Amino acid sequence: MDVRRRPIDTVRSSSAGEPLKPRKLAHDHLVKAPAADVQALPLAPLYLTNGIFFTLFFSVAYFLLHRWREKIRTSTPLHVVTLSEITAIVSLIASVIYLLGFFGIGFVHPISSRASSDDELELDDDDTLITRDDSRTPGPCPAGVIDCSVISSPPQNQTQNQRVVPASSPKIIDNTPLSLLEEDEEVLKSVVSGSIPSYSLESKLGDCQRAAAIRKEAVQRTTGRSLQGLPLEGFDYESILGQCCEMPIGYVQIPVGVAGPLLLDGKEYTVPMATTEGCLVASTNRGCKAIYLSGGATSIVLRDGMTRAPVVRFATAKRAAQLKFFLEDSLNFESLSGIFNKSSRFARLQSIQCAMAGKNLYIRFSCSTGDAMGMNMVSKGVQNVLDFLQTDFPDMDVIGLSGNFCSDKKAAAVNWIEGRGKSVICEAIIKEDVVKKVLKTSVEALVELNMLKNLAGSAVAGALGGFNAQAANIVTAVYIATGQDPAQNVESSHCITMMEAVNDGKDLHISVSMPSVEVGTVGGGTQLASQSACLNLLGVKGASKGSPGANSRLLATIVAGSVLAGELSLMSAIAAGQLVSSHMKYNRSSKDISRVVS
């Protein structure tokens, strides 16, 4: 049975040998149990019970604190208790246990208790729903519980055609979620009517999967559109609560392929790529093969610093310039870095760069962030510095913590020139015979194509950081697979691809320079199970224990090495005239769609 869902009510029949019968649910077509068989124990309303325990908790807490204060004043030992104090202590413990259950603490089982994972739901021939657990025997239900589930053995006359449905995963019958019981249906109607906000379901229900199921059904009812192809089960919704995604209704499936081995800096890496573009993984894999057969690629990280640039305003440009001079004075850097570095044990302020537009001042802070991508970390450090500056510059008006001089998720010359995140260069020398046998082209053709396409062609187009063939393809695929922010492919894909004939024109020297690779191995989507597994495949999962930031820097070099492989293969396909034929082979389905749908 699912977590915090109301179990199926069963009551004992008048006949001792007759199996227990389930209580009727919200959907009449699922269960056909006589209403006369249903018996309920009268209980006080839930709000009254909650009020009693809240009052009890505060009352006995005040009583005990008052008594212990008196004992301290009169030097009476605290362990000497009277009968009234014992009663108060017991009442306090009981109320605390109840309140923990009320607020959804995991080790306390509330009224809607969690059934064993061995429980199963069975649908017999007339669609009657019964519970079964072969490992337990029937027993009485807990006292005071209206909806108790008594475990019973299946009927003796059960046929082999009966369908067994695991209770832990909601099933769909006639497009209706089997998991939506009466209380779910009431919540669903409240969400549809607007009396319960959809975003508050997790906090109100205390069950993230149940909240997602109800929200998904509410979306279908309010829009009149089916979400049948959007999966709900098989995902840990608690892992994204307050971290990755709000108001979830399911998840999108993206296939993950692998390219490699990528021989980089003497080590081999199998690169995971999440994509729906045919030919991309195959092309990158061919590039990895060419690099491998040529002795591998080498990489170097030139810079490692995340940036954030708030915008502040003064009454005059002269006053704004005074703050600019103060920030750029090397004598003030030590005190400013001390304030900044208090935000985290990994944050280390590296530089402060200022730019002015009239009386507005843009302050670009750059700092190291360990193995985290670091946007939140640098933002907290910037806020600390702004609070500190407010003392000496009380007339400073902070317009925004981000003034786009950072610049995040936007193509910007400041990132292309100054760098953001990790600035990486990766290079390799591809042997002549590999160019001919694996890449099916020549060194001369590649060098000429690179000059006319990636350099001159991009310049004609007015490209900003786009002097490459397909860097964004590889960056985005690796980012999605490893839990990075896909939107940061904008600046992370800034890349210039260079090709040159070397060794008397026989071999090819190829390099990619990427000044703004923004990656992390902790935080955000990297903590999800699938993305964490892909990071583990690369050997960069989590934080580096020996050298903070080493894992994220290694991931940045792997991204650059993968881009190098992708550039090499695609440029070779274009030079050999194989681009269209390869895409028609790998990027076009030959399946009979009508049969697939049926």
Give the percentage of residues in beta strands: 15-25%
Total strands: the figure is 18
Poorly predicted ranges: 1-41, 107-176
Mean pLDDT: 82
Strand count, sense and barrel status of the largest sheet are: 9 strands, mixed
Q: N-to-C terminal Cα separation, in Å? A: 32 Å
Work out the radius of gyration. Answer: 32 Å
Judged by helices, strands and strand pairing, the structural class is: alpha+beta
Taken from the alpha-carbon principal axes, the silhouette is globular
- What share of residues is helical? 25-40%
Q: In DSSP terms, counting alpha (H) and pi (I) runs of 4 or more, how many helices?
A: 18
What does this structure look like?
The chain starts with 9 loop residues before the first strand and ends with a helix. Strand 3 and strand 4 (129-132) form a beta hairpin. It is built from 18 helices and 18 strands. The chain is α+β, with helices and mostly antiparallel strands and 598 residues long. The chain has helices spanning 46-73, 83-102, 182-193, 201-205, 208-223, 280-293, 317-328, 330-341, 375-392, 413-418, 432-437, 443-460, 471-482, 489-492, 529-538, 550-575, 579-586, 593-597; strands at residues 10-11, 21-22, 120-123, 129-132, 163-166, 172-173, 176-177, 256-264, 267-274, 298-308, 311-313, 348-357, 360-368, 397-400, 421-430, 466-467, 495-502, 507-517.
